[in-house]
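Lab manual, section 2.4: Encoding a predicted structure.

Procedure: take the sequence of the chain (76 residues), apply the prediction step described in section 2.3, and record the output as structure tokens. A sample record is shown.
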Amino acid sequence: MFTCAVCHAKECRDELVTEVFQIDGQYVLVDRIPAEVCVRCGEESFSRDTTEKVRLIVHGQAESAKSIAMPVFEFA
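Recorded output:
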């Protein structure tokens, strides 16, 4: 049963999300991560299995599907 860790809502929807991680100064984008997303506030929650798989991916235990270039902005 889902309960949002942020707003305590009880309803979520299953989605595939994209996350960017910074590992040893390098940015790594992981696409199509299965997540439960709170319908009220948008907080994303991941299963233990998904979290472990993402950990292995970002620490180099998978080959990248592609590489991309992206603009970088500074806030201040």
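Check your result against the sample. Residues 12-58 form one domain.
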